[in-house]
Design brief:
With 214 residues, the chain is α/β, with parallel strands linked by helices. Helices cover 26% and strands 21% of the residues. The strands form 3 sheets. The protein has a 7-stranded mixed beta sheet, with helices on both faces. It has a two-stranded antiparallel ribbon with strand order 8-9. A two-stranded antiparallel sheet has the order 10-11.
Amino acid sequence: MKILNLYAGIGGNRKLWGDEHEITAVEYNEDIAKVYKDLYQNDNVVVCDAHQYLIDHYKEFDFIWASPPCPTHSDIRRCGVHSGQYEALYPDMTLYQQIILLQNFAPKDTKFVIENVKPYYDYLIKPQVILHRHPFWSNFNIPMIDIEDDRKHESINGSGSVYGVSLDKYDISNKRQILRNMVNPEVGKYILDVAMDTVKYKQGGLFDFIGETA
């Protein structure tokens, strides 16, 4: 499967995808891209603007994952403005531009998912599902599932391991923010498995996870 991983960061969502796919990761920050490449040496890592890369290449992939910048949508921003900690900013409409683009122009055989934070405002476009406190917009059904996660943002200080990934050996700034931005790898694997039809479910009150079909 040809996969496009946009706003890749250090690859939290990609961690459990394995090496059988042809993965292109796009990350704007060169230092972060170097860490990603060190962790996932088989992936093609492109250092450029993910927003532009998407519109130039969206027809070339079987599965697209995008995690566009979230700070201007987060309730942390709203609370920070009211407390005087932050200045008010226009919400970054990159998020909705990409949703609209892929909903209307993605090839029929291309599956996509766009991930972000729950916003402080009413959704302008309703997400397909909310998993692990994050909304996901997609063109395929993503059944609900409980994924346990003991990670707490306030406990991340830039050292140590988060989701089994450590930045201790890297000379890179903003380690705490980079680790905080990681998508739970279990969520990343679950969504890719659903997109590939390699998991099956039974219908109850909610969908219950059964397991991989092999």
